[in-house]
Amino acid sequence: MIPAAARWQPSRAARAAVILLACVPFALVAYDAMNDGLGANPVEAVLHRTGDWALRLLLATLAVSPLRRWTGWPWLHHLRRPLGLLAFGYAMLHALTYVVLDRGLVWEDIVADVLERPYVTAGFTALVLMVPLAVTSTRAAMRRLGPRWQQLHRLVYVVAVLAVLHFLWSSKLDRPEPVVYAGVLAVLLLVRLPAVLRGRRLVAQGP
Amino acid sequence: MRRIRVPVVPSSEITPRAVWEGRRRFLRAAAGGAAAALLPVAWGEAAVTRPGRLDPIAGLQETDYGKDLKPTDYADFTTYNNFVELGVGKEAPARNAHLLRTRPWTIRVEGECEAPGAIGIDDVLTQFPQEERIYRLRCVETWAAVVPWVGVPLSAVLARFKPTSKAKFVELESISDPDRLPGQRRPTLPWPYVEGLRIDEAMHPLTLLATGCYGEVLPGQNGAPLRLVVPWKYGFKSAKSIVRIRFVEQMPKTTWAQLQPDEYGFYANVNPKVDHPRWSQGRERPIGDGLFARRRPTLMFNGYAAEVADLYRGMDLSRDF
């Protein structure tokens, strides 16, 4: 008999692949930083690249449940937590880049930005709201919180909307990317609409 | 290869402003009079490095403008550009610069003037002394650079066309060539790009019609073959690849001010006290300074207050931003 750990499971293989793949952008940023590959404004480059990946991974997290339903592959469910945590990781790197490298730890500027600039307020709020989600992402927290876990984790929709607003409000009119992300988020929210209207939970039952 | 520098610049090591200003005044005084000709040498400042990429500008005359400023690396200044005609994003303009045809090139000059006509790029290059001037550049997006421009005072060129007393403003129009320029096939901005100056701003001795930078003709991504340079205003005022100049009586409807009037004014003077609605203008980031460089404070009128503040006497600069 093959030991359970050695048996090929799509969920494990997919999870390992997703985690590895999601670390590639970080490795590339680090490589470019060490090889003068970040261009004339390296701080902005790191800021944009970590922010882009935080948002992409966040949207990927939201895509898991609809994709699972659509494909009928129950194991996709196992990708949700690592994707969400990786999104949080990139969001933290993004925020650290802003606070340390861009603003040089000038706290009065940072506080003024958070309070006065709507796009910073949105980004900051999104990051803060991700903290309880990351902290309660363990199985133990899931058990402990019971039905409240799902209620709490609906915050991810607020986080996603704030993250997209953060990008939209920070950009000049001449950039198409924020609109593309807003469109993707709109699709991901709309596909949930029928289930919400039927009063059903999209991802209530496990495999 | 540029090395990553550790971000340790203790405030004790930063020369206080009063001290370095005093030093410069002392040096200037020491080098004054008959020794003025030796100023660049006395400064210990090497001449601007020619990158050797494009045609050098013949008969270039060095000047004292910005001799105490250290120019941004050519590679940084020519790979990080806003020139939407050549594409969206900082890298696209350099990638698409080869699509810009810079010969033949003429600027039509018309409107409220006695001698409307045209002037070609080669007329500008051969009929006017080509001055090298090192200016600070400040983008409205908060990045900054120091650029050794080559060009002629715009006033010298405009004077040829004899503007009348009705010429209260100057409107500058950039290239329109959607067949060749990928950015102009999309309505990212309304084309062509239009900028403008009040006539006294246009005639100010600091205002340049640039023909080159770093001793060579302008790269396409930096606005070849002729562009405006107004060093005390945010970079978007300095229109690139200019094809038309009109003397007008009414304030021109300029591209960004039309598109987002809350965010971009007609004057667009660099002003650390008037924030862009979405970000502070108090500090700027010099490009090419590496990952661990700090922002530095932005100066009123980008450091040219002594030369230009009089132009705006009595104006409310937070209203007329």
Task: Walk me through the structure.
The complex is a heterodimer of chains A (about 210) and B (about 325). With about 210 residues, chain A is an all-alpha fold. Chain A has one domain (about 10-195). Helices cover about 75% and strands about 0% of the residues of chain A. Chain A contains ten helices and no strands. Chain A has helices at about 10-35, 40-70, 80-100, 105-115, 120-135, 140-145, 145-155, 155-170, 175-190, 195. In chain A, helix 2 (about 40-70) packs antiparallel against helix 3. Chain A is globular, with a radius of gyration of 19 Å. The relative contact order of chain A is 0.10. Chain B is α+β, with helices and mostly antiparallel strands. Chain B folds into two domains: about 15-45; about 50-310, Oxidoreductase, molybdopterin-binding domain (Sulfite Oxidase, Chain A, domain 2), CATH 3.90.420. Chain B is about 15% helix and about 20% strand. In chain B, strands 1, 4, 5, 8, 9, 10, 12 and 13 form an eight-stranded mixed sheet that branches. Chain B has a five-stranded mixed sheet with strand order 3-2-11-6-7. The radius of gyration of chain B is 20 Å and the shape is globular. Residues about 20-45 of chain B have low confidence and may be disordered. The interface between A and B is medium-sized, with 30 and 35 residues.
